[in-house]
Amino acid sequence: MKYTSGRDSADFIRLNSSGDESNGYNCHKAAHSKRKRTYKPVEYGGPFLAPFFPNPDAPWKTKIYSPDIIGLHNEIEDFAKWMKPTKEEMMLRGCVVERVKRIVHQQWPTARVEIFGSFKTGLYLPTSDIDIVIFGEWTQAPLRTLERRLVESHIADPTTIKVLDKASVPIIKLTDSLTKIKLDISFNTNNCIKSAEKISELLRQYPCLDKLVLVLKQFLLQRHLNEVFVGGLGSYCLTLMVVAKLQSCPRRRRGRLEEENLGVLLIEFFEFYGIRFNYNNTGIRIADGGSFFNKSENAEMRGSMLCIEDPFQPGNDIARASYSMFIVKEAFKLAYTWLKRAVIAPSKPCEQVFPLTDSILGTLVKVDKVIVEYRHWIKNNWIYMAKMLPHPESYTHDDSIATPSARRDKPKKDAWQGGELSDGTTDQSAEASSEDGDRLTDELTSDSSV
To answer: Which of 64, 7, 42 lies closest to 354 in space, CA to CA?
Structure first.
């Protein structure tokens, strides 16, 4: 898979590239015999990285990190801190959920709307979608009816909304027309709520889990390996893979996992699932403290490369849709090779295959410039969007529904146009009342953290 960000960078290693590692190493040794070095963009296995220059695609970088495993640990800490949503982002996401709720209750007054997935657990990236499930009494999921209502209400642009009615779990995928936040809406999927509660429980049990998952989610996202409906590795399965590795860690049994170096844990994850794990015969089980089992025990679990047993339905393989796992495995393998060489460089110069870079993590994980611009756009324009969106009782995803009030005049704002800002307005249905907007604005502006 190719990662495309609009430009190539000399200090970013694309893990889909082919190349002979030994050739890269020999080229590096030969270059040392020359008086003058040149640095240029290369694929994985090539001789050089651009050294000592700040990485423009590492916005989390706040200091000079030591070029070793300690520096990698500190950088992962800063990455996770930078990726955490701001209060403006959390509030706007809560408003988008409320906006959908109001449309649903206008159409089906007795329906129940719940959130799950990464927005529920807090493990979401700035561009992650919001997972919504609607519970009601239907003989067949009303996908087309809701699609039509979302378009008529100007919540979804007709060009961005998709109905995946042939998927194992039929969903509606759309992008909110005002905030550009993506949503996935499904119907009557009961286990998704339990799954979110299980992840929240595991996050409390393993304090390092959220930081590792955020790094790995960005790692897969930029390589287009994170979408389950095209065979990628979804957030839920990825989180359970991290948990399974932590459960099997000997240091956990000695009660020392909370003090563990995040760089070590990340490298061990890549090594385990990129090299050591036997996908042909072994399945993953996290229930009852975690274990690995032989896939031959259950005939239904032998059909997919990655097998993860459903914590709530033993015998059900929740990873069977990740049919591109062989590509993910190769990416993990190359990431392990790269990180191992990066962190041993200071202690074993003879094994160093590239000059020191200012961001070890930044050679594997990249934040697109558009994401940085989008977050700035949210920060600068949330006050306008807040006045146009219905305000939930709480942006911590309270299920209570406020009564929609009369429509109000819409203020002008900057509209996000995928990398550019333009002046414009959007017609809205399920509109916010003036009390909604003022209450939202007052709540955010009174907070000292904003």
So the answer is: 42
Mean pLDDT of the region 372-382 = 88
What are φ and ψ of residue 353, in 5° steps? -110, 5
Which residue from 314, 311, 318 is spatially nearest to 297, judged by alpha carbons? 314
End-to-end CA distance of the chain: 38
**Dihedral of the CA atoms 93, 418, 80, 42 (nearest 10)?**
160
Mean pLDDT (whole number) for 242-268: 79
Chain centroid to Cα 330, Å, comes to: 19
- For residue 137, is pLDDT > 60? yes
d(CA 341, CA 389): 49
Q: Residue 322 gets which letter from DSSP?
A: -
pLDDT number for residue 8? 41
Beta bridge partners of 175: 182
Average pLDDT, integer, range 146-170? 89
Residue 73 has pLDDT above 70, yes or no: yes
Overall average pLDDT of the 411-422 stretch: 44
Cα separations in angstroms, 230 against 226, 323, 373, 431 = 9, 8, 28, 35
pTM: 0.74
| pLDDT in the model for residue 254 | 46
Name the token pair of 384.
């306008």
Tell me the three state secondary structure of residue 44: coil
> Nearest 5 degrees, angle CA 190-CA 194-CA 196?
115
pLDDT class for 251, splitting at 50, 70, 90?
low
How far, in Å, CA of 77 to CA of 326, rounded?
Answer: 29
- Whether residue 95 contacts residue 395, with contact meaning beta carbons closer than 8 Å, is answered with yes
Cα separation, 179 vs 381, in Å, equals 10
Nearest to 266 by CA among 248, 285, 283, 245: 245
CA 85 – CA 88 distance, rounded (Å): 8
